[in-house]
Design brief:
17 helices; Cytosolic phospholipase A2 catalytic domain; 385 residues; alpha/beta
């Protein structure tokens, strides 16, 4: 009898595993409930449909998503895209949504990696990290006007887990830069990396990945969402994803989720994301993305040259400029906002000999005549504001 009891104890599931099992089960049921709730929504007419791309969390696999976004930027119109992200999936959304230069977004990520390498990765003060990221965003040209226009378009969403009451929230990007950064960091907030949960508009939030695999607004049908993840298909058949994605890798990258690899390996991860998205080009067209007639905007060889010139030990400073020869429509729109509303950019134009290199639609850099236009009455009106 004692022997049977001993064997029963050996086969008994530990309390921690039981708790994790029930949490995963509850999360799966919650995800199924949210998906089923969208089934009653009317389908969007084909001519009226705006493709909705949802990025899952990624851990530290930011580089893979950078490759995905790079391919989409270079091969499809992005002006009508709707986007959502959770945790690391938010890392490059703003590049597509606001037309921020992808090279500068990449440099920002490397600068943040350098910051964490020096300061450590644990127990960061949430408010202090907001200040650091706001400063970096301003350096790459993200202004309150950019953020306000994005919020008004209701084009970009971020998924967070609300602490009280416990639930998933898919939130449209707010109207100010500081609130945008607070929401972005709240979507990535995990203790002990942060000392406390994230704070957004006076409420506490933690990583959106705790409550959902993809963050989708309640007024969007689940079956119309284009899903992007950095996990292979066989792993997403299990809870909480319970379904394959439209873009995902064929290989499992577990260590890259948890380890900040050197820049040489990060380049390989970017290439993988680019190639995996390239394989799904026709599928993405079927799902509603509109291909560019003269794609790619920037060939992969040009990106490779830019990457090869980066020295991780001596990073270039962050700047509000275009790094590629050809810019997308959204990038040109962002530059127009920058010229109109950014005082620092106008000061640079007025200095004379130092002229910013801004890409134009035909692929060349902007001439001194373009900069003279900045010094005209429109520039004066901007200063009077």
């Amino acid at each position: 009898m004692q022997l049977l009891q001993l064997r029963a104890r050996k086969w008994r599931m530990p309390t921690t595993l039981r708790t994790m099992f029930w949490l995963l089960l509850l999360r799966a049921l919650y995800s199924l409930h949210r998906r089923r709730a969208t089934a009653s929504l009317p389908r969007t007419l084909q001519f009226d449909r705006k493709p909705f791309l949802a990025f899952s969390g990624s851990g530290l696999l930011f580089a893979y998503y950078h490759g995905v976004v790079t391919y989409i930027r270079d091969h499809f119109y992005v002006d009508n895209l709707q986007l959502s992200g959770i945790s690391g999936g938010c890392s490059t959304l703003l590049a597509l949504a606001m037309g921020i230069d992808l090279y500068e977004v990449l440099l920002l990520g490397l600068h943040m990696k350098k910051h964490f390498t020096k300061a450590g990765v644990y127990l960061h003060d949430f408010g202090a990290m907001v200040e650091v990221l706001v400063s970096h965003f301003k350096q790459i040209g993200i202004s309150d006007e950019d953020v306000a226009q994005l919020s008004k378009r209701k084009q970009c969403y971020m998924g967070v887990t609300k602490c009280f009451p416990l639930q998933h929230c898919c939130i449209n990007t707010p109207a100010t830069l500081r609130e945008l950064v607070s929401l972005l960091l709240s979507s990535m907030s995990v203790v002990p990396f942060f000392r406390t949960p994230g704070v957004y508009q006076g409420k506490y939030y933690v990583d959106g990945g705790f409550s959902a695999m993809y963050s989708v607004p309640e007024n969007h049908r689940w079956d119309e969402v284009i899903k992007v993840t950095c996990f292979p298909w066989w792993s997403t058949l299990l809870p909480p994803a319970m379904g394959v994605a439209d873009v995902q890798p064929s290989r499992f990258m577990p260590t890259e989720v948890f380890v900040l690899y050197p820049w040489a390996h990060q380049q390989e991860l970017i290439r993988r994301g680019y190639e995996d998205t390239k394989k799904q080009h026709d599928h993405l067209v079927e799902r509603g993305l509109r291909p560019l007639p003269n794609a790619p905007l920037t060939p992969w060889s040009e990106w490779s040259s830019l990457f090869a010139a980066i020295d991780e030990e001596n990073l270039p400073p962050l700047q509000a400029k275009c790094s590629t020869m050809v810019s997308s429509e959204m990038e040109r729109h962002h530059l127009e906002i920058l010229r109109t509303y950014s005082h620092s950019d106008l000061h640079d134009a007025l200095k004379g000999p130092r002229v910013r290199r801004l890409s134009s639609s035909d692929g060349g850099s902007r001439s001194e005549a373009n900069c003279s236009e900045l010094c005209s009455g429109r520039a004066a009106r901007s200063f009077r504001r």
